[in-house]
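Can't paste images in this forum, so I'm doing it all in text. The chain is below; anyone willing to post the predicted structure tokens underneath?
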Amino acid sequence: MRGEALSVAGFKPEGLAIARHIAELHNGTIHAESVGEGQEVVFTVRLPLLQKRDDCSSIQPDR
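Text version of the structure:
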């Protein structure tokens, strides 16, 4: 979600760890920021853009 804030009720710290792992698997990052305990948390996820490849039509699924 570009430029949008997401409010999550019942935030769990292990959820951030899972999201961080997923972001890192895609060569990305995640950052959480809050003004204080019990306040809204803003998450920023950055992922690299997928570059278009002209030879994608030659890729066949594994069987």
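The CA atoms of residues 28 and 47 lie 4 Å apart. Confidence is low (pLDDT under 50) at residues 1-7.
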